[in-house]
Amino acid sequence: MQIPCSIFFEIYVEVSRLAEAREDIQRAAQEFFKKLECGDKQTLALWQHFKTISIEEYEKTYQRLGVRFDEYSGESLYHVKAQELVQMIDQRGLLKKAKQGVGVVDLSPKGDLTSYAKVVRSDGTSLYLTRDIAAAADRMEKYNFDKMIYVTDKEQCTHFQQMFDVLKILGFNWTERCQHVPFGLVKGMKTRRGDVVFLEDVLNEARSRMLQNMAASKTTKELEDPENTAEKVGVAALIVQDFKGPLLADYEFDWDRVLQSQGDTGVYLQYTHARLCSLQRQCDNGTKIQFNPTYLQDPQAIAVLQHLLRYDEVLYQVSEDLQPRHLVNYLIMLSRLASIAHRTLHIKGSLPEIATARLLLFEGISSVLANGMKLLGITPVDKM
């Protein structure tokens, strides 16, 4: 059985295809939208029904990613305020007429309409831009935000630049608090359902492939719930793949590379964390011995400690430029250093004071690794 959102998508594709050749379908769509903006009860009820179904489907997928929204407030909710905005623009003498009667705001330096933003169609209905501007003003009034960040694909850069320009022209002095963070495109991603990719399908395929990999691996431990572990590791693989490079860059997607257990992958981070948890279970006998840092003079221990000291700096860097790759690359390097330390800084067979110091070092690595993964939206696994 198909999920409702995929049915909506199929209808959208088919109607769009038909509308390219049939003007009557184009007109019907325009008339429906106008009724929506005019507050027609039957039209609004139908739109609300579709919106509710869509959000229910979104929430199921978001739940798998550990994402929760306090409020769903898209631009489509602002058709009434968008009309109020157009009236305000007109009253201020900023609404100009362009080709075919489209209402625009002049963005050109010389006021000659060489650059403008469309804010209202010739039939009086609003555009995405108009509703986004109305939404921004409403959110400022409602939340008095310090920062509002729009995260979309890079093809929307012009849209948001025009939006911010119009907000400035309208005199909203808080426009500088708005920021657009664009991301690149994923190329070559396919699932068994075809070229059009739904996130739920990607998550399902990541879990399925990871489960197969775990079953084929000789090092996989006995797990109470292998599917749950495969889900968490699969999500980690997708998040790290998406975040390890500059957000703006396009990249080629390859399932085999994404799910590798070695290298700069989410699977490697999860594997490292699970191995550190296993080490703690094996070596922590409950005996408390005073920690003495002088027993961590080995080059491998010093390298780990120096890297751990950079954690705050990396988090600050991420918060400043909103590029999660800094944290991803930090955690990957931490995992590599942990692997080297694990091979050389033995706990079993060492003097109790040395064993305690080394165990605490590995606990510190595990703690930072888990914390960093959680910040990226990854749920760490302790067995794998």
> Compute the gyration radius: what is it?
27 Å
Tally of separate helices: 14
Q: What portion of residues belong to β-strands? A: 5-15%
Instruction: Name the overall outline.
Output: elongated
How confident overall, as mean pLDDT? 91
Give a count of the beta strands, DSSP E runs of length 2 or more: 7
Residue ranges: pLDDT <50 for 5 or more in a row? none
Structural class, by secondary structure, is mainly alpha
Q: In order across it, which strands form the biggest sheet?
A: 1-2-3
Distance between the termini: 32 Å
Question: What attributes does this structure have?
Answer:
three-stranded antiparallel β-sheet; 57% helix; single chain; mainly alpha
Describe the overall structure.
- 57% of the residues lie in helices and 7% in strands.
- With 384 residues, it is mostly helical.
- Helix 5 crosses helix 6, helix 7 crosses helix 8 (226-243) and helix 11 (299-308) runs parallel beside helix 14 (352-375).
- The longest helix has 24 residues, at 41-64.
- It is elongated.
